[in-house]
Design a protein that fits this description.
5 helices, 5 strands, binds 1,3,4-trihydroxy-5-OXO-cyclohexanecarboxylic acid
Length: 140
Amino acid sequence: MKLLVLNGVNLNMTGVREKGVYGAQTLEEINAELAAFCKERGHSVDFFQTNEEGELCSRIHAAQGVYDGIVLNAGAFTHYSYALRDAIASVSVPVVEAHMSNVHAREDFRKKSVLTEVCRGEVLGFGKNSYKLALESFWL
Ligand code: DQA
């Protein structure tokens, strides 16, 4: 399968910000692990991170007909971006929502995702392994 891992706002600060919540590994280190994880299982994976909401929407549009699935950690966009929700609904490529932290055990505003309804499923609370479990969901 050809898969895409998309990370949204502030995920470039992984390994630097709130290490107690998101761990000490950088996004580059996590992505390298995910690349090996997919390769060992015979799947290809691309990565993209942006702090821009519109760019994230454009990447989702461009994935149509190119990727078999998207793993999306939209960061804080998760909680309020109707634009992102509509972008996901615009394409037939399945999207699995992923979060490193257990958003339900944190602040109230994190408990609501405006994306889940248009996603195939959601994985959260397992640190970097949330990405692995979300990727795995495409070939299991
Ligand atoms: C996050 C959870 C969000 O609430 C937060 O804004 C993030 C990261 C996670 O991976 O746990 O930036 O998506």
